[in-house]
Amino acid sequence: MKLNPITPRDYPELQKYFENQSHALCAYSLSSALVWKNDFYRPGGAIDGDALVISGEFSDPEKQDYLLLPVSGERRYSPGELRRLARRLDFERFSFAPLEYIDAFGSSEFKRFFDIVERKKYHDYVYRTENLAQLPGNRHSKKRNLINQFSRSHEAKNRTLIEPITPGNADECLEFLDLWCEERDCDVNPREDLACERRAAENALRNIDRLGFRGILLRIDRTVSAFGIASTLTREMGALHFEKAFAGIKGLYQHFDRECARRLFKGLTYINKESDMGVEGLAKAKKSYQPAMMVKSFDLVLKS
């Protein structure tokens, strides 16, 4: 078994392994895994019987290469099988192991072979779709007020339009992304999370019709001012991978976030809005939407 680089061209062949996958961490979205490839990070893949093994390798020696848990709709690898797989592929760790997987076999069984390391910055925030689509109750009253302000200043005056992202309008989203990144100095350090996320969003937009993504954009006075891109993660959960809106327009983000919940996650009970990556401001914003649960993420580090 050999790991080979994987690219968006491999999506049709690899997607079958994800049809019944049950991991609730966004790392287990094939669509997302493929678009994060850049000069500093390379995803790889190998077939192990009825399972797909995905790796993440970095050019930066200070970052740690890893494997994801094997993806299979048919079976789960035991801790002993994971140890053999890691040794076979010459990797020291599995990253993004959800707590539910560890609990299924028991932490004591895992500790026979691995050190279990909690990765709080990669815990995913998960929300009930109906709550984000409706924003009910007093706890969301400030957000509803902001939405009402945006509606009066923009919607009521017919200044807004929401439409699906397609190859025909993806370039406009890319132009918007350039402006959004100028607001935040995304490219100060090309190795930092914001710069890497920008390249991933660009890859997603360029492959919007090829990788199982679905997306919407919002125009104000015909100009793209927000976009969101999602995919299906499990049978009852979708992931909102990218959501961008101009910060200077009052109520725009709150309005657009609600529209993403209403339009991109029909038939799905939960929305995974990914992790806060340890960014305090991002964590505060995600917590303000009252997550239904946090999906905890762990590294399994092979014992010597």
TrEMBL record:
Matches recorded under Pfam families: LPG_synthase_C (PF09924)
Residue ranges constituting the Phosphatidylglycerol lysyltransferase C-terminal domain according to the UniProt record: 63-293
Listed name of the protein: Phosphatidylglycerol lysyltransferase C-terminal domain-containing protein
Organism this protein belongs to: uncultured Desulfobacteraceae bacterium
